[in-house]
Amino acid sequence: MIEKVIDKVLEQFCKDNIENEKIKVEFEIKNIEKLNGYIDVPNNISLPIKIVIGQNVINQYVEKDYQVFCTIYHELVHAWDYYNYCKKYYDGDYILMKNNNNFQAFYLWSEFNAKRRSYIYYRDLLQQKVSRSIQFDALINKEIPYINENINYEIENYNGGDLLYYIVHYLARYMVWEEIFLNQINNYSYINENVKIMLGNSLKPLYEFLKKNKNMPSNSEDWDNFNKIITESNLNITIYLAQKIN
């Protein structure tokens, strides 16, 4: 069963990336705690990237629950990002790439990119025959409260992880909502209040950078700019968390 799902997602991914160089990937199903999937990157781009899908996602799969489709697509986007970024800037050496100071910026951008693109794919599958008004009603009354609950939980129960990881995922979803429902969602009107307060004056630069760079940033200057935004965002997050403790 899962082989057919992988084939279907691969077919759609190749259609969505028809102009791009094909990459080598392998799939593995295994038990993973807390994750739906991840990529296992080799030493260089001549070797295939392994895409690991959690057995928990497979176990939960039913025909009209497209989470497994979304997970596979999400990890394929990561694989494509890592391959192309490494080829362009590090001559195909993944070890050199991961040890570089700019890796954090690339990592967060790829998390944004993978979440945004896989979420678009997920919505396309889920909402194929649903009217726009019904979609918006479900978004306002079900999805946004659910997503707000999740991001609030990560903020309230912070234990030393990377909050920007969750925030760029959140902003990726928000960007898709804004693209689909432009007349109803704009000017940060539905942005989570805790995210607004925590990021403060770095929210707009972060969101606008991601919006401008839906495709991978094309030069070192853009990556340097993103690094500065990340530094400012992390500083604001640290101040916010320290004030909560006090």
Structure, explained:
With 246 residues, the protein is mainly α. The protein folds into two domains: 1-100, Zincin-like, CATH 3.30.2010; 101-246, no CATH class. The protein is built from ten helices and three strands. The chain has a three-stranded mixed β-sheet. Helix 1 crosses helix 3 (67-89), helix 6 runs antiparallel to helix 7 (163-180) and helix 9 (203-212) packs antiparallel against helix 10 (220-245). The protein is globular, with a radius of gyration of 18 Å. The mean pLDDT is 90.
Task: Compile the SSE list and pairings.
Blueprint: H1 2-16, E1 25-30, E2 37-40, E3 49-54, H2 55-60, H3 67-89, H4 94-98, H5 103-126, H6 132-156, H7 163-180, H8 193-199, H9 203-212, H10 220-245
Helix pairs in contact: 1-3, 3-5, 5-7, 6-7, 9-10
Low-confidence stretches: none
SS-based structural class?
Answer: mainly alpha
Strand order, biggest sheet?
1-3-2
User: How many runs of DSSP E, i.e. beta strands?
Assistant: 3
Return the average pLDDT rounded to an integer: 90
Indicate how many domains the architecture comprises. Answer: 2
- Radius of gyration over C-alpha positions, nearest whole angstrom: 18 Å
The oligomeric state is: single chain
Which outline best applies?
Answer: globular
User: What is the succession of H and E elements?
Assistant: HEEEHHHHHHHHH
Distance between the termini: 52 Å
Share of helical residues: 55-70%
Count of helix runs? 10
- Percentage of β-strand residues: 5-15%
